[in-house]
Amino acid sequence: MVAVVLASLLVTSAGAFAREKQPKKKKHQDLSANPLANVNSKQPDKELFDKAMTAMKKGKYDVARLDLQTMLNTYPDSEYKMRAKLAVGDSWFKEGGTAALTQAEAEYKDFITFFPDTPEAAEAQMKVGDIYYQQMEKPDRDFTNAMNAEREYRNMINMFPDSTLIPRAKQKLRDVQEVLAERETQIGLYYVSKENYSASIARLQTVVDTYPVYSRSDLALLTIGDAYSGEAKIIGMAKLNGAVKERLRALYLDKAAAAYSKVIMRYPMAPHVEDARDRLVAMNRAVPEPTAAAVAENKAEQDSEQPIRFTDTLFGLLKRGPTVVQAVHVGDPSLQDPKRTLAPEMSKENLAMYKEATGQPAEAAGTEKPTGTNEPPRSDRPSDAPVQTGGAGTTGVGVEIVNPPNGAAADPNALVKPVVPENNAIPEAEKPAVAPDQINDIKPGQAQPATAQNPKEKKPKADLSDESSSKKKKKKGLGKLNPF
Fold it and tell me: 149, 226, 340, 354: least buried by Cβ within 10 Å?
């Protein structure tokens, strides 16, 4: 019995020791907390500030703003002025709503303008990004707020690189980029289903180049390879020369194999790696081996992702915002402006591949076909005609009169001959013609004859029998018996 009690005590103490050794999870800094709550001061400005913070905690945002404005106006040199001005923006931010959040953004931007070198400026910029983060919608909805949130978080990381809020800002930026990348991927997958391969490659290539830490980048690259394989299949069914067809088909298959190989080399622990391997084996292409660094990097990304639970899926259908559970929590997000790949660029790439397959020389960038003699001037480049100042054979406006070549008959309709005055002199303005004298039908001193009318003469009555009238006419004779 004593041995059993000692064993249970040892197990309990071991469990308590293990609990003591477990590292505590680091909590994010609460940006809405009052940093001056522990400051004991009986000064009137501090009491006004504490009163405003208490009102804000109770949800009385109008009262809080009134107290803060009173403090700022009454004590302009207060040591709590900076926190009070930031708290004005916090009151609008906590109130919520489109109008209140717009006012909060304006207050935070003003704070950054007046106090740009303080740690609180990074907090204000972080909250500007949070304003748009809260208003984000699902990937298949309007993405304006997501784009604005991405821009504000990037500004925060670039403007305040030494801030303690940088880890939180980077994670928020990963979440936002997860939503934007998911939107582009869904559009690219839709275009693949409609066999619009150029548009699909443009969308998915934008995802791969701009959002490298996207959780489904392996699917984007795999779909790019499938799109190039689909274009190679279309070329195989086209009516082209046999040699040209094989060369062009080989070029598209090379593009597909490069996309499949990148899946294996960059995302070796992703779910679609085996699909990429199978496609390379089916194409009789060599399967590359990823490096140890790539395996470790991608494994860390996969381990940082959180699995989607049933509650996430359920609440994702009910709430307005997106579900960002699968966003990675490691790696540096992209801090550059998105470099978009457009569908016209893919069309130009297809044309260049066709010329390469047919042996035609590819045109250098910027080369244009010169205009001929009878072609209209180009509007995308200036005219190279020399400016003429006058003289024989010129019009005086920068255009030289072109003569027909030697031995050729002059065609009167070939060129429009300008009307040029002698000695290229501009004639003086001619005087207007003298207006003719006004002729009056009635001479001066002569009265206009008036037609005499007899007042006793009666005008003939108008015949209104054929006109319709709303006035009810009296019935006469047998018509009185007719009720209609």
Answer: 340
